[in-house]
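Running this now, will post back.
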Amino acid sequence: MEVATILPAEPPVAKLQAMSSVVFFRAVNVGGHQSFQPGKLAKELEPFGVVNIGAAGTFAVREKVIPAKLREAILRRLPFKPDLMICPAADVLALARANWFGAAPAGRDIGWFVSVLQKAPRSKPPLPIEQPAGEKWEVRIVAITGRFALSVRRLGKTYSNAVVEKHLGVPATTRSWNTIKTICEVLEK
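Update: finished.
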């Protein structure tokens, strides 16, 4: 199954426009590295309409805020400088409304994931990408759209984020499809 669309990178003017957003932290609260309390940060950012979505550093931002101002407000409150992927809420909502996984396997031992890329990849790789290749794959990248790479993961040692970063050459952070659905529920309230 090959489903791939790569949209152009976000135009520079979009960074100046106030919008509701979703903030994805990269490489935080893992093994004591760059640890913080997401719930506490969300309370501090309450004027922006920030809602914490779990412990991985995912926030829905309901108010319209210029992304640079939001980034500065977040970084000012932390003792470290994490990688942040700030996406327009409209892009995340559109992502969730599409049928990206189509006939991709699903079940108890198989999960669907979205990797949020720091920027859209320069070129379109042939899909699907499997790691390891063949019938015993553990991660299969099934689609790429803009700054999002969608993958299916079987239980095993291979993590979707590592495969996405290796094959696309772009820093990323990965969330489950259920997290994306929860973000959308919060944004649509």
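Strands lie at 19-26, 50-52, 58-65, 83-88, 110-117, 129-131, 139-145, 148-154, 172-176. More later if anyone needs it.
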